[in-house]
């Protein structure tokens, strides 16, 4: 099963919509029985990485249910109590159980949909009906919360901006859950315009330190990748240091279309989220700045999903 995805767009209005916070985290589908199975947006098993979420197994053992299928967002809060994807990324990369205890970086699973209960598939129900069933569960366990819903979209959009949150997701009340589909029944409205790009090269800092100073970005062009600009702004020392050994391992000889000669080409394995001010007449990004590494996405996702990568509308990670 794959999650339903939101389409970037403008904030809708009217009684047909319900609004939720857009979280800066990682999408997870959770199947809860006498064991826990966590699947990422790409279908990868993440169960061993977040053992603290097994609190849901303890909860279901004391409930009247034998099986739940949940949809939600996993977040990690920084020192200011705001969700931080860069902080969560440290947990995402921990594969060994002894590294994944999470005491240093606790996570919270924000549940916003109920897709199945016992032997019943709830996806054909409307969003409002699924939310009612979710709230009736009274799911209360450590590291898990049920996200709030709101009826006043503009007020929530203003409030999330003031609090430094990522944005808002609007969901049509009568919408069915469409697994693996990016639907206009769900609309995401982030507070900043960002898109995802594939890293196809890098260039060192001009100061001669040898540190990674700029990343070459590309978009899918048929079966190839086409250079669309370079970003050095936003590339922190911590991210630069973390990327250096990875970039060294994926260095290749063949450069993608349009890569400037002063960049070292790399295989298209890494995805980054970039904020920018549109494109120049030549099709290159204007004033791009790296927002974060996206270890939860692959280049294949960008090539196959029109809702990721560049677009004329705001773009987020939902």
Feature tags:
318 residues, D-amino Acid Aminotransferase, Chain A, domain 1, OB fold (Dihydrolipoamide Acetyltransferase, E2P), 2 domains, 6-stranded mixed sheet, 6-stranded antiparallel sheet, 6 helices, 16 strands, 32% strand, globular
Describe the structure.
This protein is 18% helix and 32% strand. The protein is of the alpha+beta class. The protein folds into two domains: 5-190, 2-Layer Sandwich (D-amino Acid Aminotransferase, Chain A, domain 1), CATH 3.30.470.30; 194-304, OB fold (Dihydrolipoamide Acetyltransferase, E2P). It is globular and about 65 Å long. Residues 311-317 have low confidence and may be disordered.
The CATH architecture name of the largest domain reads 2-Layer Sandwich
Q: List the uncertain runs.
A: 311-317
The count of DSSP E runs of length 2 or more, i.e. the number of strands, is 16
Find the CATH superfamily of the largest domain: DNA ligase/mRNA capping enzyme
Q: Indicate the mean pLDDT.
A: 89
Which CATH class of the largest domain is shown? Answer: Alpha Beta
Can you count the helices?
6
Predict the CATH topology of the largest domain. Answer: D-amino Acid Aminotransferase, Chain A, domain 1
Terminal CA distance reads 16 Å
| Overall domain count | 2
Basic shape: globular
How would a textbook summarize the main sheet?
6 strands, mixed
Tell me the series of helices and strands, N- to C-terminal: EEEEHEHEEHEHEEEEEHEEEH
Percentage of residues in helical conformation: 10-25%
SS content category: alpha+beta
Strand content: 25-35%
Using only C-alpha atoms, the radius of gyration works out to 20 Å
